Amino acid sequence: MRYTEIAIAKPFEGAPSINTPDCFGASPNKPLLLKIPVTGERPMVYRADNLPCGLTLSDGIITGAVAEEGDYTVTLVAENKQGKDEKKIVFEIHKDRVQLTPLMGFTSWNAFGYQVTQENMETTAKRMTELGLSEYGYNHINIDSGWQGAYGGKFDAIMPNEKFPDMKGFCDRMHAVGYHCGIYSTPMLNAFGCSMETVPLPPGCTQGEPDDRFADERGGIGKIRKEKNNALQWAEWGFDYLKYDWRPADPYNAELMRKELVETDRDFGFCVTLKARPEYHTYW
Prior knowledge:
The chain is an alpha/beta fold.
């Protein structure tokens, strides 16, 4: 029998190695967050040469907003007592220019299912940092179904249940250590993640009578549209990414949510899940 030797990652040893992609996208005048992922022995000194106006670097995390559209080439530098590494990255600042590279990070469903809590998510993020995963570019912490409570609040949007006592605080703490935050929803009246006998059922981004243009999965898609309400609420909390989940997926409902996300004061990565009909291939 032949055995393959498994290499064990050592993210906090040796000379620096910068692990950013070659590009990073953001919209003008919207908050930008990029933790510079660097493996190597600590302490580490970071530098970012030619940052565009509006961006600052602190403790290896670039934040701020850029007013002027354009492509800005920045040289990232990381140095420790073992050596130095440099890498160029292009900040592509254009409207709705987000998620230019594949998402890397953690999503809660396979680990916690519908029982997920805010404490689970914060503990996971802490462990990812301790293991050095964020230094390889794993930079998303995404909450799947299980956070939803009843409608309410200043935007008449879905409020979190008792398992998530402080959504804004969660996002603020994740951003402070360089993670982007993701959330889950659906255009259906009732979200996936639990049986239809669950009381109360987790609500989605529509209300009212089912719209007979769409499938009746999970009670169907309601005639009262709440995409704007929820997009505004997620933006106020500080989320950066939405997983939007229904069956079968269709361009009409996807586009309603996409437009509302774009109209907020934050950039959102937007992921539509589950299978779509072949005739929609040009939209996807």
